[in-house]
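User: Just a sanity check before I run the rest of the batch. Below are the structure tokens for the first item. I only need the designed sequence back.
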């Protein structure tokens, strides 16, 4: 009986050792906190996978009220993106040097993100509306209307296959 209990205590103490050491290491300031270091590949891969999965969960059941083929709505999204997002997420032909170098995690540069990795409208929408924790991606809720957030979400998700008029407007700008 006694022995069983001390075994359990030892087990619980063992479980706590690592998190406590980590907390102490963090609180004495030994963990790096700058934004310019290059994120290690493994950390980046796990982070991107986890964000993807989480956005998928957060987007479940959402209905997109804006037709993602509506040219006028996509043009509105293009304008919103250029005004509010390109400064971090890059333009049609080039990175944002701030976004691509000075954030941890780095800001995805959508113009050169692989087509398969561009988020679907619903996933982009939840990232836009509610932001991404522990990153430079703040929530836009209250800054843009619901409709504007869908317009820009549709634009992001179609950036690699825009209708000709919208592609023309987007590509024409530096
Ligand atoms: C101050 C810089 C900054 C601005 C401005 C900004 N973002 Fe972001 N955004 C980020 C960062 C950083 C991330 C990546 C978070 C991560 O990887 O954990 C991100 C992530 C995202 C994602 C998720 C990407 C993915 O791969 O799933 C979307 C979608 C997005 N942003 C859209 C927008 C839109 C649309 C706007 C403008 C309305 C915008 N962002 C403005 C910094 C910014």
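Assistant: Here's the designed sequence for the first item:
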């Amino acid at each position: 009986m006694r022995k069983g209990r001390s075994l359990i205590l030892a087990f619980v103490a063992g479980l706590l050792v690592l998190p406590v050491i980590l907390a102490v290491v963090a609180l004495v300031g030994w963990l790096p906190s700058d934004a310019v270091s290059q994120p290690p590949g493994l950390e980046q891969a796990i982070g991107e996978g986890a964000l993807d999965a989480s956005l998928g969960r957060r987007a479940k059941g959402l209905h997109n009220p804006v037709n993602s083929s509506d040219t006028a709505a996509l043009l509105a999204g293009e304008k919103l993106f250029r005004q509010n997002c390109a400064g971090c997420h890059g333009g049609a032909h080039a990175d944002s040097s701030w976004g691509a170098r000075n954030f941890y995690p780095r800001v995805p540069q959508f113009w050169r993100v692989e087509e398969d990795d561009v988020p679907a409208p619903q996933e982009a929408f939840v990232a836009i509306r509610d932001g991404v924790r522990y990153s430079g991606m703040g929530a836009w809720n209250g800054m843009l209307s619901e409709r504007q957030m869908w317009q820009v979400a549709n634009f992001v998700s179609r950036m690699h296959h825009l209708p000709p008029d919208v592609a023309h407007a987007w590509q024409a700008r530096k």
